[in-house]
Specification:
The structure is a homodimer.
Chain A lengths: L10 H17 L6 H8 L13 H20 L9 H18 L1 H8 L9 H25 L8 H13 L1 H4 L8 H16 L11
Helix pairs in contact in A: 1-2, 1-3, 1-5, 3-4, 3-5, 3-6, 4-5, 4-6, 4-9, 6-7
Chain A binds a DNA duplex through loops.
Chain lengths: 205, 205
Amino acid sequence: MPITRIQDLSLRKQEILSAARGLFSKKGFQTASMRDLAQTLDIKPASLYSHYQSKDEILWEIAIRCAREFLDTVLPLSETSLPVEKRLEQMVKAHISVIIRNQDASAIFFQEWIHLEEPRRSEYKALIDRYESAFIQLIEEGIGEGIFRNANPRFTTSMMIASINWIHQWYRPEGKMSVEDIGNEAAHFILAGLSVSPSNDTNVR
Amino acid sequence: MPITRIQDLSLRKQEILSAARGLFSKKGFQTASMRDLAQTLDIKPASLYSHYQSKDEILWEIAIRCAREFLDTVLPLSETSLPVEKRLEQMVKAHISVIIRNQDASAIFFQEWIHLEEPRRSEYKALIDRYESAFIQLIEEGIGEGIFRNANPRFTTSMMIASINWIHQWYRPEGKMSVEDIGNEAAHFILAGLSVSPSNDTNVR
DNA sequence: TAACTTGCCTAACGAACATTAGGTAGTACT
DNA sequence: AGTACTACCTAATGTTCGTTAGGCAAGTTA
């Protein structure tokens, strides 16, 4: 018996979460059944309930752990003493690396959480809002300093995060782009999109 | 040339599709049941089968019509005699206007089509690929002309479309941004992200 | 040794699911 | 008047769903 009472998940619980992540992200939460999950683990469906009380609880565990990973990894980078554009670049790259390290969980972080039952869904939504707010505030700060062009911070954040999140849909480790390549391309795209330098000829003001 | 011929629908069929669009986009295809759909229309579930043979067929009708709308509206703009960056700007704005005109259908165009059964799913996928290819080719053309920076065309297209598509998730007609505002912001963001002007970037060749 | 815990089992529950069979009014055309 | 079509109905099909009850064998602890 371990001395620490700080509860990490049992090995079995982790195995179940891992299998569920794969299933939920591949087929979607509603489509993946507890029977599917049990079969993946080579046990009977009822046995899952020795570990988790409900399907919703499994979704919740996956979602909340993934959310924490994003928040803990990315948010601290918004408060360093680096210049605004450097901070944003780091956040974008960090966000991408979290996606790629947790590709299955990311699908749940972005999409499947919507199927959480209340009150978990609201609690989760608040986390995401907090996450996005960090980006919005950073962009506002950059605009205030004249580093970024006068964009709509909320709109820009939405576009930015949507464009990055899509990575989880197509990224394959064996593909041509490395994580660094993706981070560089994405950061370049986004920072250029925010730069004050008048792009060569677009006539948008 | 046309992959699937779209015939005109009876009034009742249109009403069913309209209700289904709302339901599928709001709750997701799997979550929304034929019972839900029937209730929305104030008829019995079995009556739906007088009009459509299956739930899959309803999803298919919605998806394929929406796909046609995107392809017919946006693709012709890629072949005009305008400069590359102007064509891309028009395509982005046209894509956005289709999203906003068909907000419910767009959710299906982007996400719910995945639940189509074969062989419809593959046929649909081919349409989307054709759509994306037009953007990829345009970006390649722009890079070749030295108008766009040396980005990865496929990656950039993916980010670009993902960022625009997200609009259907939050746009509300009563919100602060008009369709024109959104089109301008998005086009600026994307074209600036592709411009050759080097911003503060680490890996410019 | 006895009690407790863990992790699985068999078996079944009620509910919800998409779908089908067969029928009936009302309307339109011949 | 007869035919055919439209748009719905009632009733039921078989399947799958999440979940529960109760039990059993092995390992751990007292």
